[in-house]
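#lab-general

N.A. 3:47 PM
ok so I finally got the sequence cleaned up, no stray characters, all 142 residues accounted for. can someone with queue access submit it? mine expired

B.Y. 3:52 PM
send it over

N.A. 3:53 PM
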Amino acid sequence: MGARRLGREIALQLLYSRDYAAGEASALMEMVFDEAEPGTAAGRAFSDELVRGVLENREAIDAQIAEKSKNWTISRMARVDLNILRLAVYELLYRDDIPKNVTINEAIEVAKKFGTEESPAFINGILDEVASALPDKEPLAD
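B.Y. 4:20 PM
back already:
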């Protein structure tokens, strides 16, 4: 598994844990990393960036999700799906180094592993709506 996929999966577990356990982000992060499969330093660093980015921008991220969710309120969404959406919307809005299609595909793959049978289609639908309202990202120069 690539470092970024591992980072996304660990970030999801941490955000999910925060929904149910009051605790310091760094303490929860250490617990999740201790229980996760061994990963690279790059995966850990990427996970840390994602979690901090989502937490710092959660209000704006949730507003995007709520705006693009037809017939669903955030409070009705499964916590796993919501946190996958939060991670992906963070990437779409704030990470210029990750192409939109990569973000969406990665979110769908994480949803297949951690969500329900309906999760990938649900997440794809909302992320397509968010992404379509954003300009294309410029490819990074070598």
